[in-house]
Amino acid sequence: MSYSQIEMAVVQWGEARGIVQNSTPMAQAQKTQEELDELITAIHEDDREAMKDAYGDILVTLIMGCACADLDLVTCLEAAFSEIKDRKGFLNKDGIFVKQS
Predict the structure, then answer these.
(1) For residues 36, 43, 86 and 67, what is the CA-based torsion angle, rounded to 10 degrees?
(2) Residue 25, SS3?
(3) Whole-angstrom distance between the N-terminal and C-terminal Cα of the chain?
(4) Is CB count within 10 Å lower at the N or C end of the chain?
(5) Residue 88 phi, psi dihedral angles, 5° rounding
(6) DSSP characters for 35-95?
(7) Among residues 58, 70, 6, which one has the least CA distance to residue 30?
(8) C-alpha–C-alpha distance, residues 3 and 19, integer Å
(9) Digit-coded pLDDT (tens) for 28-87
């Protein structure tokens, strides 16, 4: 299954459960934060299965948030990549990319 097919299946799942119609981008952002907290715990515990679950759940909440805002995640990703693709910078000692101003 392609990414776009999975994304559409997730949106249809959310529509069937009333999430897309009745939730909000803010509610989904809060759900994303909960899932991100679970990911951080999984990383600290080096629990690969929990990491896999959390990354997937984060994607689902991002897709739901986009659907509630009448956006799609691929369009958002394309816009972000277009903005960063030529960005210069460096990786700091913590492994975080810092853009040059």
Answers:
(1) -30
(2) helix
(3) 40
(4) C
(5) -110, 155
(6) HHHHHHHHHHTT-HHHHHHHHHHHHHHHHHHHHHTT--HHHHHHHHHHHHTT--EEE-TTS
(7) 58
(8) 21
(9) 999 999 999 999 999 999 999 999 999 999 999 999 999 999 999 999 999 999 999 999
